Amino acid sequence: MAYAEFLITAGWRPEKQWRKAMNVIRTCHRLARLSLLSSGIVLCRSPSYVKIKIHDVEDDQRAAAPFTVAADDESFKGLVKDKREDCFRGLGGGAGIAAALASGAECGIRGDDADVAHRKEAFGSNTYPKPRPKRFFRHVLDALSDVFLIVLLVCALVSLGFGIKEHGLKDGWYDGVSIFLAVFLVAAVSAVSNHSQGKRFDKLARESEDIAITVVRAARRQQVSIFDVVVGDVVVLKIGDVVPADGVFLEGSGGSRIFFMGVPSRAHLDYPLEPPLLEGHALQVDESSMTGEPHPVEIDANNNPFVATGVKVVDGYGQIVVTAVGMDTAWGEMMSSITRENTDPTPLQERLEGLTSGIGKIGIAVAVLVFAVLTTRHFIGSTRDEQGKPLFDKRNLTFNTVFSGLVGIFQQAVIIIVVAIPEGLPLAVTLTLAFSMKRMVKENALVRRLSACETMGSVTTICTDKTGTLTLNQMKVTEFWVGTYKVQSVAAVDGAVVNLLCQGAGLNTTGSVYKPDNISPPEITGSPTEKALLSWAVKELGMDTDALNKKCKVVHVEAFNSDKKRSGVMIRDAATGAVTAHWKGAAEMVLANCSMYVGEDGATRELGVEQSRNLEKVINVMAAASLRCIAFAYKYVDGGEQSKIDDEGLTLLALVGLKDPCRPEVKAAIGACTKAGVAVKMVTGDNVLTARAIAEECGIITKNDPNGIVIEGHEFRAMSPEQQLSIVDDIRVMARSLPLDKLVLVQRLKQKGHVVAVTGDGTNDAPALKEADVGLSMGVQGTEVAKESSDIVILNDNFDTVVTATRWGRSVYNNIQKFIQFQLTVNVAALVINFVSAVTTGKMPLTTVQLLWVNLIMDTMGALALATDTPTKGLMQRPPIGRTAPLISNAMWRNLLAQATYQVAVLLSIQYRGRDVFGTGEKSNGTMIFNAFVLCQVFNEFNAREIERRNVFSGVLRNRMFLGIIAVTVALQVVMVEVLTRFAGTERLGWVQWVACLAIAAVSWPIGWTVMSSSMAQPSPSPSVLRDHHGEEEIVMSSSMYNNHAIYSDV
Q: CA-based, 20 to 30 A from 547: which of 51, 87, 420, 952?
């Protein structure tokens, strides 16, 4: 191992060389830090010199950590899966297993690339094989499995046989093969689209499965992908986490915590230790995903140390050492046999299936009539060829002529059905959902369930939480009170009070303080509230976590949850043995359990009615200033064993106010919701005054809503269901709410006919997230349990992203409506033209191949063009889409009937009079009908981009997919008419005829503009007054269709 050693002697004269010496020492420290990150070598200190080892890249390839457990030991692999307690005890419990895996509670595994790779090679990776997705040819077969396409292929086969028999191989194969090619082209384009969307869905599914896991590696707590968890990893678990791998409970050391380089607490460690997690306390898991039993199971080192993959932490916190990953776990075996493909149709797809079925029945009816008419005309000699001769000659009656004629007529009838049935509707839904999901991920909204995209378009009220969603989630302590004294300087507070506060902040926490050296600032982790309190304690109170952990040992912990709104810890002084209970939480709740309070001089005073009222005023003043008020309290208790921390008769230690500023974009986002007819409700666990202040700042409470109510959770709980139903529409802010309040509110809103969506981040939010029509979990602060219960994950915890999801939900529905309008126009025009022509002339103007080409334009290419449009500003300036709103609105009927009527009229005119007007023959006239019909659809695709607005060109240049589809369609149409004449049954057209076709098609634009100009403007919603539940204060917010539907959440 090559390295350089630099010795810096201390022989300089300090009066002349002190500047240089300081620079050298500072440089040494920095080089040491860089070296330690990769090598983990101890930085040795002495009074006279500092020794630094700088390693080669080869030094990173250190020897693999030795395991005393064989990687192929089946009894060890099944340790958790089979709950082998004898193996657990034989290896020395959790600590012994960790040591056998070259790991430990304090330091975890070494964690460098070589170590992780070695563990993966020995024990496997935390992945499992998934069923192979559909291959491309499988999608082709699915596309060809359509019954009418199969019938058409049979007809093509018969046509091929009769054609070769009648005209020989040289000329007789063309009609049959042309139909074959056209059918396979339609199937191939559909398969390409479905295959690409399937790959996109798989990619999004993988992204949703890749969650971050907190582990201890190289004595530092860090986050890694769930797929990178390896055997030996020490995984940190807290409420709401999903266990990523099989493991056993690992008791924490509870000993001293190392902060500075070069002072290791254990001889074998050659890197600085981060403060380890406190010992596991009251760790409970939900094993229903594995056993089906819904009751929480307690995990401890003695009675039940086994923790299986996939179970959820419902209370407490702790550490496990991973013993098996991937396919060595029961979860991996189960998941590898489950296909990820979701074949369940979304609600919109179910409705479209009904529409497709209805249109298909009409198409079949028309096809039957056409078949009957054409058959009758054919056999009575009314159908004639281009030379005017009857196609059926009674004098030369043979089986071949009869059967060939029937096959040709049947083929035409079948192609009418193929064109009439809108197979593109399911494709359009898939396309727009896949497109929307991909774009929503880029805008920080990860869709976990497809139906959520559609349902978001029907949301009319958004009830959101506060912290991190409406605010920046960047908390900072801005006020500090000891008793009724507002502290300006910590120096004015008695030292004993400061020491107790350091204990309450530094030990009653799930956060951590990591100081890499004595120069760099400390790295603080935890929730925003915990980070703010720890940062304040370190910077303002001078808290030394290392000394604190040496002096005190944690005896018992009660973790924070949304019901209690406080957390507690019991500690024992190492020197005296005295036991102290510390509590921290919502100020008014902690204050209610206090009988004494501490003054700034350190004296303890009785908390009487007057003092209690004064402290409540302090809390209310901070709350009115939109500060979150946290109280610290303590109590000296007996040193005996206690299963519960005493929370009665506490002594109030201090009050602190934390400021979390509103997001700068949230007010504009709430204003956009109001314009869109979407009401915003805030449901939070904060004090009612804090909630009101934030709601006013964000624009949820304005001066136009006298009927609005600000209510607290306990008031709502105390009401009867009938009373709750009577006020639920008028609630604007619910403060001090519990998860149960959230669930009941969702149920009441749904009873009133609302479409409810809930935002939540905690484990206890899961029932409300599942009950809601759309559950929105927070990606930053949300627990894994909350995310699994939700439909959409808001990756940045920002309310503006919730509004974005609503906009995309409306876009999904709007894009489907655009496509329906476009496709039905083609369907109506094609059916009427073919039926009328068949009845009056005995033949259809469009050949089988031409109709298949129209079907391709209408279905696949039309879906690609119209289903991938991005949301427009106009979508958020109209009322929400009702849950049962008709798929085809009156405006759509107006637009499509106007265009279809025009197309039928002009094309039938060409059918009857085109030869005389343009001086063309029979085939050229048919080509003009085909060309004009296709170009009409191309021009009408622009009209279909808008249903209500006249400016159909708005944003068209930004939609490259749409412009590309239009360009490809026009280019291929030119090829069909001018090049593939025999394949398409066309004849080349002159420039006059092309100009005529373009002019006929271009008339679609003024017709669309004229029809849309007749639409009536929708009336805007009327305002309504915000009051608190008692009706004493009037504060207002805008009300816009509050009696429709809702989204919901909590802090």
A: 51
